[in-house]
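Model it.
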Amino acid sequence: MSRWLAVVPLVVLVALAALFIGWSLKRDPSVKPDALVGQPVPETVLPMLTGSEAGPGHVDLKTAGVGKPMLINVFASWCAPCRVEHPKLMALKAQGVAVVGVAWKDDPADTRAFLDELGDPYSMVLVDRDGRAGLDLGITGAPETFAVDAMGNVVAKFSGPLVEDAEVERLVAALQAPARPLPTATRR
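Modeled.
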């Protein structure tokens, strides 16, 4: 009887391994979650980066675009892919595209040093030191970029560094797409 009890944990472990392998084979690794697309930007109040400090001013991420389309770019000074995408963000700034930066899980002094070294492509930098905005946005890591229309709705998202021109153009085109018309009442 005690021999059978010794085998039970092994059987459970093998069953769990089989379930995991089965799930892994069905999962498509190229699928990236875009749950926020079509939804309003979460109301998340964050301190602005002032010099190398967070605050004293605070801004709601949803209204950071001041009624105009914007890109929200989640980045960090410790993030190597963020350095890779930085020239594309600088080019977007030169084109007049508003980009709001969210310094995710980063020290404000390190963020300032990063921007001083590579240039500041952002119209505003918000500090998300504890990662709360990242949770609200549903990011999987840095960098991630969201295209937000003038009404504060996410219209497109890209996970990973913006290095391909096609992805940059897709996000910018999403910003320039005409707003959907408001529903109108019909007479009965």
